Amino acid sequence: MSILKGSAWIGDESQIGVKRPFFSRIRWGKLAVISMPMFWLGLFFFVPFLVVFKISLAETAIAVPPYTSLLEWNLEEAYLNLKINLGNYFYLVEDTFYLDAYLNSIKIAAISTLITLIVAFPIAYLIARSEGSVRGLLLAAVILPFWTSFLLRVYAWMGFLKKNGIVNDMLLGMGVIDQPLQMLQTDFAVYVGIVYTYLPFMVLPLYSALEKMDMTLLEAAEDLGARPVTGFCLVTLPLALPGIIAGCLLVFIPAVGEFVIPALLGGSDTLMIGRVLWDEFFLNRDWPMASAVAIVMLIVLVLPIMLIRNTQGKEAAS
Amino acid sequence: MTSSQNIETSLSSNTATDSVPAWKQEGAEPFLRIENLTKKFGEFTAVDNISLDIYKNELFCLLGGSGSGKSTLLRMLAGFETPTSGRIIIDGTDMSGIQPWKRPVNMMFQSYALFPHLSVADNVAFGLKREGVGRAEVKQRVAQMLDMVQLGHLGKRKPHQLSGGQRQRVALARSLIKRPKLLLLDEPLGALDKKLREETQFELVNIQEELGVTFVVVTHDQEEAMTLATRIGVMNHGVIVQTDEPHDVYEYPNSRFVARFIGSVNLFAGFVVQDEPDAVHIESAEAGTTIVKHHGISCAPGQEVSVAVRPEKISISYERPTDADNILEGEIEDIAYMGSLSVFRVRLNSGKEVRVTQPNFDRHVGDRFTWNDKVFLSWKSDSTVVLTS
């Protein structure tokens, strides 16, 4: 309490330009509040990241854990040996298998993100435009799937899509097809799985962007001679852009590294980086290689996000 | 004016013939014709069979409280609502089935509805670009329009960087850039503070006269309507109860509703006791006397009426006046000093409270009326308004 009081007082003083010694100028209350999430991030993101990075620079060894140590002590000769192995990273570039996996992951994630956006936009728009009580109900319906285990829901899709599954039975029954379609173990099933799973992550940010929009803006656009389609493109889309970007990031990032969906719904030829990672860790037991794959994936994902955030920040500042 | 509601002829129609406004000319062609327009939302009738003619270069004010249907009427003119029945004819063209983006009409929205992601100049240019006007011309016309509303230097700003008054000007510029035949304004001054309102009111009138655009303004603010309008249409429950020039609406209201809605008024309930060719006598228990009204009223003996007298038409005195037509007695209950004038609340012997305003001619306070003074209230027969509805 006294800390907060102190900071408020110092804040007032600094506004009228009174210089104080460094330590009393620090806003301790503010620092205390910010340090909690920072500590959390450091403990559960930054430290594990460093551990993974360290492993990626090691070599495989038949040991527990199955990699060599970077630092080697030799007490008799009194030297400290630092051994960094960049071979894993070179191998990532040499073997086109990994590049293919990265590119294919990005392709699948990008297409799924686009489809999710197209599916989610009308849903979000409808929710944002509906009356109070209906709106709550629709929002609840969007979030409802989270109450069931993700794994169970993916298994349910297996039941839908398999050779003698519900979708094939229905299409056969209606006479649309006379041979059951091979849907499971194809890229199609992976797209269905990703779009279905990540839909709420797209709907919610879109909804919050559209909900803030003043509907009289569209009337103003029409009044000034814009057809509804033009009004949508020139008013609704630009105003929904922050929601579109947020939603796309929320879908694209986890979709690139997705493992469960391609493993359960995809075929053996559905090459995604998540599965490669899994195989490296658990089949090859090559932890350093798997770590290198993970680090590169992180860089591939983080760089474009930082670019987007940067341009957004500049736009907001202007 | 509908004859059933109006029992008194307007006295202000004796103006010179060359300056007779269009709405008083026989057979003048209206610019905007509204024919039996009705709009229902389910069971609720928002606009009830309105017919109205508005002429070129008019600044017509639709005045009414919330829920009176004035905004719905405006939205039908813009094309955002489809009439349940009736027609809107603008400059000879029937607007039925014509979508908002094809109408020769622009609207200035109450919230201004400026596009938050576009700069001031892009907001103003929006309408021109949709018309496919060339880039150079767009630039030139936007600059011209922004200069007219005195915002030439702010073209690059975003709406959220402007003050309320500046936003209002951007909205006005944006709605005028396409040179509409008819401009609709929804509470144009509602969001401005009092001082800015007064300035903007006159500016709006100047712009309207300069460009020769026909304005239809919706407002709930009677003062705004009085200063802006060439004519006022007073709306209540989806119906236009009176259409007249501001002066006539104030001095010759045709119903209790209009009398009460515009300005303040003292109403006395009573009934006609004597109906002579040149005068009518109304006995009012509330007033505690018989009220006399000379000149042109036609009503039957025994008919129940209301007598309306504006507070500023009533004189207040200690002595019983000798030349007044109507005299009431009472006691001053409350005084509100408002600077330029004072408002007195006088309790009559009948218990009825009467509001009287008197200009403060003198600076010193000494011999002014004060609390609990016994006074006489009087007014001329001419100031009496007899209302039957």
UniProtKB/TrEMBL annotation, chain A:
Pfam families: BPD_transp_1 (PF00528). The chain crosses the membrane at residues 28-51, 108-128, 137-158, 188-210, 231-253, 290-308. Keywords: Cell membrane, Membrane, Transmembrane, Transmembrane helix, Transport. It is a multi-pass membrane protein. CDD domains: TM_PBP2. It comes from the Bacteria. It comes from Neptunomonas marina. This is ABC transporter permease subunit. Residues 102-308 form the ABC transmembrane type-1 domain. Belongs to the binding-protein-dependent transport system permease family. CysTW subfamily. It is found in: Cell membrane. GO terms for cellular component: plasma membrane.
UniProtKB/TrEMBL annotation, chain B:
Keywords: ATP-binding, Cell inner membrane, Cell membrane, Hydrolase, Membrane, Nucleotide-binding, Translocase, Transport. Gene3D superfamilies: 2.40.50.100, P-loop containing nucleotide triphosphate hydrolases. The keyword Cell membrane applies. One of its GO terms (cellular component) is ATP-binding cassette (ABC) transporter complex. Its EC number is 7.6.2.11. Residues 1-18 have a biased composition (Polar residues). Residues 1-20 are annotated as: Disordered. GO terms for biological process: putrescine transport. Residues 32-262 form the ABC transporter domain. InterPro entries: AAA+_ATPase, ABC_SmlMolc_Importer, ABC_transporter-like_ATP-bd, ABC_transporter-like_CS, Mo/tungstate-bd_C_term_dom, P-loop_NTPase, PotA-like, Transp-assoc_OB_typ2. It catalyses: ATP + H2O + polyamine-[polyamine-binding protein]Side 1 = ADP + phosphate + polyamineSide 2 + [polyamine-binding protein]Side 1. One of its GO terms (molecular function) is ABC-type polyamine transporter activity. It comes from the Bacteria. Transmembrane segments: none annotated. Pfam families: ABC_tran, TOBE_2. The complex is composed of two ATP-binding proteins (PotA), two transmembrane proteins (PotB and PotC) and a solute-binding protein (PotD). Part of the ABC transporter complex PotABCD involved in spermidine/putrescine import. Responsible for energy coupling to the transport system. Belongs to the ABC transporter superfamily. Spermidine/putrescine importer (TC 3.A.1.11.1) family. This is Spermidine/putrescine import ATP-binding protein PotA. It comes from Neptunomonas marina. The lineage of its organism: Bacteria, Pseudomonadati, Pseudomonadota, Gammaproteobacteria, Oceanospirillales.
